[in-house]
Every structure is written in structure tokens, then in C-alpha cells.
Write a structure and sequence with these properties.
Layout: H1 10-28, H2 36-51, H3 67-76, H4 83-109, H5 116-124, H6 126-133, H7 139-154, H8 158-171, H9 179-188, H10 200-208, H11 210-214, H12 221-229, H13 243-250, H14 252-257, H15 259-281, H16 288-298
Helix pairs in contact: 1-5, 2-3, 4-5, 4-6, 4-7, 7-8, 8-10
């Protein structure tokens, strides 16, 4: 499906530049903030990678993040800038990508909405600002790639969508939360003959891990890193107000005693809810608006 290009006036272009500069400048005021994660993990990862020879350090697993992020940290060690600023600049760059593609999706759903409105709102969200420029988190990276993937999926460019989804997944395991929605879209569009396109996901993940393989990592590295992450915290929920968190707060002893059983039971419950929802939704036309609503619900 070919979309007509939006024509921008000079005022809109200047507005986009002004908004971006203003909100990036605001982020810069937070660049000296050193979060707990930075002091305990990220700073140490940088120093260890630098001491191991920069790119040569990719032979080792430093920290618990995926190889593509470790590769970027290795590149940081060759730059004469404070690592705290480099971490934050990387995430802030993807804040902008996230805002651009979020706005593109919203404008596509409702062309009457000025692109600059959702762009500004996303770039100005306190959670987005704090996550990247204060807490030194990398969530904007994988989230931005997910927005790019959704954009292409909405426009029936399935191969590109799955490649960008693979890029997101290569950076952070949480990207997998959007995978059920991809299955739903293929189901709703009756793309049964094209399931093989999902092969782009592992191909892309492994391509993104190529620096690690060249440095001597094993072929199972992308899987073992993520498998390790799933056992880091034995809690039903972390930093989110959801049903498992309610159980954890209401029945702390029972949750601790029956953690494995509850974990598996909640996973099964989640799958059943998704299947029931997708079964009902498959009968409805997948309009652009419904596309975003279902994507949000399923995530």
C-alpha cells in the first residue's frame, strides 16, 4: 500500500526544529544526573569493556544486556567524551525516532491531527524524558524500532516490519511482548501463505549479533543472554501496577511459596486472554485505528 507523502510548510518545518531543540535542551539539563543503575551497572560495564580492549571485549559477556548494546558501549570507549553523556545521547537520539514514528502512526490513523501534536506529546512525556536523560535507560532504543516495525506492518510492508521487529528484539527481550500482535495481524489479514516471513526475525537478531560472533561468541549467545534475564528476578511483577503485582502485594508469602506455579499459570492465562481477544477481533475489519488499539491492548 503506497501512502501519499505529507507536504510540509516552512512554518511546520521550523516548528519541528524548534520543538526538537527545546525538548533536547531540556534533556541536557538532566545529563549530570547519575541514576542508581548507572552507578551500579552501566558505569562498571563501560570501564570493564574499556579495560578489556573495547571491541575485543565482545568476546566476553559484560553485564546482562544483549550483544548489540554491548557493541555500542564498546564503540563509546573510543570516544573522548564522558560515558554518562554518551549513554544518554544514544537514548535521547532514539527518543526522537520514537516520537517521529509515533506521530506518523497517529497521523496515519487520523490525518486531521497535525503531526507536530503527537510528536511533541511523545517527546515531552515525563516518562520518556526521565527514562533516557535522567535514568540512563535504553528502553527508547527497542521501543523506537517497534514503532518503525508497526509503521511498516500497518502499511502492509510485512518483510520490513519483521526485520525492524528483529532489530528491536536484538536490543531487548521486552520487544517480544509485541510478537502476538504480529501473529494476530497475519491471522486477521489471512496472510496464511506468508508465515515464512517470520523467519526474518531470527535472521535479523543473529545479524545484529554478528560483532559478537566475530569476536568469538557462541551461536547460542542471543538465546542464553535472554534466558538468563528471565531468571534474574523471582517476582511476578516489577515496577508495574497489574494483576500479578496485586497478587504479590496481597499474598506475599503464598506468592513466594508457589512462585513457579503462579508464573506458569499467569503465562497460560495471558495466552488464553490473547487468543480469546484475537478470535473475536479477527471478524472485524483491521482499520488503521483498530490496528493501533489492538496493538496497544495486546502489548
Amino acid at each position: 500500500m503506497v501512502q501519499s507523502k505529507q507536504r510540509w510548510s516552512r512554518a511546520q518545518v521550523l516548528g519541528l526544529i524548534a520543538i526538537t531543540v527545546a525538548l533536547v535542551a531540556f534533556r541536557l539539563t538532566l545529563f549530570n544526573v547519575q541514576s542508581g543503575d548507572y552507578l551500579e551497572y552501566l558505569q562498571d560495564w563501560y570501564e570493564r569493556i574499556r579495560s578489556l580492549g573495547g571491541l575485543a571485549a565482545l568476546h566476553h559477556q559484560v553485564g546482562d544486556y544483549a550483544v548489540p548494546y554491548q557493541f555500542l558501549i564498546a564503540l563509546f570507549t573510543y570516544l573522548p567524551l564522558r560515558n554518562l553523556y554518551l549513554y544518554k545521547a544514544l537514548s535521547v537520539t532514539f527518543d526522537i525516532v520514537l516520537a517521529i514514528y509515533s506521530a506518523k502512526l497517529i497521523h496515519r490513523v487520523n490525518p486531521k491531527i497535525n503531526f507536530l501534536v503527537p510528536y511533541t506529546l511523545v517527546l515531552a512525556l515525563p516518562t520518556v524524558i526521565l527514562n533516557s536523560s535522567a535514568w540512563v535507560q535504553a528502553d527508547s532504543i527497542y521501543t523506537a524500532w517497534l514503532m518503525v516495525a508497526l509503521w511498516h506492518l500497518l502499511n502492509h510492508q510485512n518483510n520490513r516490519a519483521l526485520v525492524f521487529f528483529g532489530v528491536a528484539l536484538a536490543f531487548k527481550l521486552q520487544a517480544i511482548l509485541l510478537l502476538p500482535f504480529f501473529f494476530y495481524v497475519y491471522w486477521a489479514r489471512h496472510d496464511y501463505r506468508h508465515w515464512y516471513q517470520f523467519g526474518w526475525v531470527p535472521v535479523t537478531v543473529y545479524a545484529m549479533n554478528l560483532p559478537g560472533f566475530l569476536a568469538g561468541r557462541g551461536l547460542l549467545t542471543p538465546l542464553t543472554i535472554y534466558a538468563g534475564q528471565t531468571s534474574d528476578y523471582k517476582e511476578l511483577a516489577l515496577n508495574i501496577a497489574n494483576f500479578p503485582k496485586f497478587l504479590q502485594l496481597a499474598f506475599p508469602t503464598a506468592v513466594l511459596d508457589h512462585y513457579e506455579l503462579l508464573k506458569r499459570g499467569l503465562m497460560v492465562l495471558t495466552c488464553l486472554i490473547l487468543l480469546a481477544g484475537f478470535w473475536y477481533l479477527r471478524r472485524l475489519d483491521l482499520t488503521p485505528q483498530r490496528f493501533l488499539v489492538v496493538a496497544t491492548w495486546s502489548f
